Amino acid sequence: MREAAALRDAHWGRVVTYSRKVFVPLTTLCRDDCGYCVFVKRPGEPGARVMTPDQVMAVVEGGAALGCKEVLFSLGEKPSGATRWRAMRWPRLGTRA
After folding, report:
1. Helix spans in the chain (H)
2. Which end is more exposed in the chain, N or C (fewer Cβ atoms within 10 Å of the end residue's Cβ)?
3. Strand boundaries in 48-95, DSSP class E
4. pTM over 0.70
Protein backbone atom coordinates (compact mmCIF):
# COMPACT_ATOMS: atom_id res chain seq x y z
CA MET A 1 0.00 0.00 0.00
CA ARG A 2 2.85 2.41 0.76
CA GLU A 3 4.36 1.80 -2.67
CA ALA A 4 1.03 2.53 -4.35
CA ALA A 5 0.65 5.74 -2.34
CA ALA A 6 4.20 6.81 -3.24
CA LEU A 7 3.53 6.22 -6.94
CA ARG A 8 0.27 8.17 -6.73
CA ASP A 9 1.94 11.07 -4.96
CA ALA A 10 4.85 11.12 -7.42
CA HIS A 11 2.57 11.25 -10.46
CA TRP A 12 -0.50 13.16 -9.30
CA GLY A 13 0.22 14.63 -5.90
CA ARG A 14 -2.09 14.54 -2.92
CA VAL A 15 -4.69 17.07 -4.06
CA VAL A 16 -8.17 15.66 -4.56
CA THR A 17 -10.45 17.53 -6.96
CA TYR A 18 -14.09 17.07 -7.75
CA SER A 19 -16.85 18.60 -9.81
CA ARG A 20 -19.77 20.24 -8.03
CA LYS A 21 -22.35 18.52 -10.16
CA VAL A 22 -26.02 17.71 -9.72
CA PHE A 23 -27.25 14.50 -11.38
CA VAL A 24 -30.51 14.74 -13.34
CA PRO A 25 -31.79 11.41 -14.71
CA LEU A 26 -34.27 12.77 -17.27
CA THR A 27 -35.82 9.34 -17.66
CA THR A 28 -35.54 5.96 -16.03
CA LEU A 29 -36.61 4.24 -19.27
CA CYS A 30 -33.92 2.50 -21.27
CA ARG A 31 -33.69 -0.49 -23.61
CA ASP A 32 -30.14 -1.32 -22.57
CA ASP A 33 -29.29 -3.70 -19.74
CA CYS A 34 -26.02 -2.24 -18.43
CA GLY A 35 -24.63 -3.96 -15.37
CA TYR A 36 -23.75 -0.70 -13.65
CA CYS A 37 -27.08 1.11 -14.00
CA VAL A 38 -29.11 1.13 -10.81
CA PHE A 39 -32.09 3.22 -11.85
CA VAL A 40 -33.27 1.82 -15.21
CA LYS A 41 -36.90 0.71 -15.37
CA ARG A 42 -39.00 -0.90 -18.10
CA PRO A 43 -42.32 0.63 -19.22
CA GLY A 44 -44.99 -0.33 -16.70
CA GLU A 45 -42.57 -0.98 -13.82
CA PRO A 46 -42.98 1.10 -10.67
CA GLY A 47 -40.67 4.10 -10.92
CA ALA A 48 -40.65 4.20 -14.75
CA ARG A 49 -40.94 7.86 -15.62
CA VAL A 50 -39.83 10.84 -17.65
CA MET A 51 -39.15 13.98 -15.65
CA THR A 52 -41.25 17.04 -16.42
CA PRO A 53 -39.49 20.36 -17.06
CA ASP A 54 -40.66 21.56 -13.62
CA GLN A 55 -39.16 18.47 -11.95
CA VAL A 56 -35.87 19.02 -13.80
CA MET A 57 -35.72 22.65 -12.72
CA ALA A 58 -36.49 21.72 -9.10
CA VAL A 59 -33.49 19.36 -9.05
CA VAL A 60 -31.24 21.88 -10.81
CA GLU A 61 -32.26 24.72 -8.51
CA GLY A 62 -31.86 22.47 -5.45
CA GLY A 63 -28.35 21.59 -6.64
CA ALA A 64 -27.51 25.25 -7.16
CA ALA A 65 -28.69 26.02 -3.63
CA LEU A 66 -26.21 23.38 -2.38
CA GLY A 67 -23.32 24.86 -4.38
CA CYS A 68 -23.41 22.73 -7.53
CA LYS A 69 -21.87 24.42 -10.56
CA GLU A 70 -22.65 21.84 -13.27
CA VAL A 71 -25.54 19.61 -14.29
CA LEU A 72 -25.09 16.05 -15.50
CA PHE A 73 -28.08 14.97 -17.56
CA SER A 74 -28.64 11.25 -17.98
CA LEU A 75 -30.80 9.98 -20.82
CA GLY A 76 -32.20 6.51 -21.22
CA GLU A 77 -32.87 5.06 -24.63
CA LYS A 78 -36.23 4.45 -26.25
CA PRO A 79 -37.19 0.87 -25.45
CA SER A 80 -37.52 -1.16 -28.66
CA GLY A 81 -41.13 -1.96 -29.45
CA ALA A 82 -42.48 -0.38 -26.28
CA THR A 83 -46.09 0.64 -26.87
CA ARG A 84 -46.18 2.90 -23.82
CA TRP A 85 -43.23 5.04 -24.95
CA ARG A 86 -45.39 7.60 -26.77
CA ALA A 87 -47.43 8.21 -23.62
CA MET A 88 -44.25 8.78 -21.60
CA ARG A 89 -42.56 11.27 -23.93
CA TRP A 90 -41.40 14.66 -22.75
CA PRO A 91 -44.10 17.31 -22.88
CA ARG A 92 -43.34 20.24 -25.15
CA LEU A 93 -41.02 22.66 -23.45
CA GLY A 94 -42.47 26.10 -22.96
CA THR A 95 -40.62 29.26 -22.10
CA ARG A 96 -39.67 29.80 -18.50
CA ALA A 97 -39.77 33.18 -16.79
Report:
1. 2-12, 53-65
2. C
3. 70-74
4. no
CA torsion, ordered 53, 56, 61, 66, to nearest 10 deg: 180
Q: How far apart are CA 49 and CA 74, in angstroms?
A: 13
Q: For the segment 10-42, what is each residue's pLDDT rounded down to a tens digit?
A: 998 888 888 889 999 888 887 777 778 787 888
Q: What number of CA atoms fall less than 13 Å from residue 28's CA on the CB side?
A: 13
Task: Write out pLDDT tens, residues 46-81.
Answer: 988 889 999 999 999 999 999 999 999 987 665 555
Report the amino acid identity of residue 76: G
C-alpha 31/C-alpha 49 separation (Å) is: 14
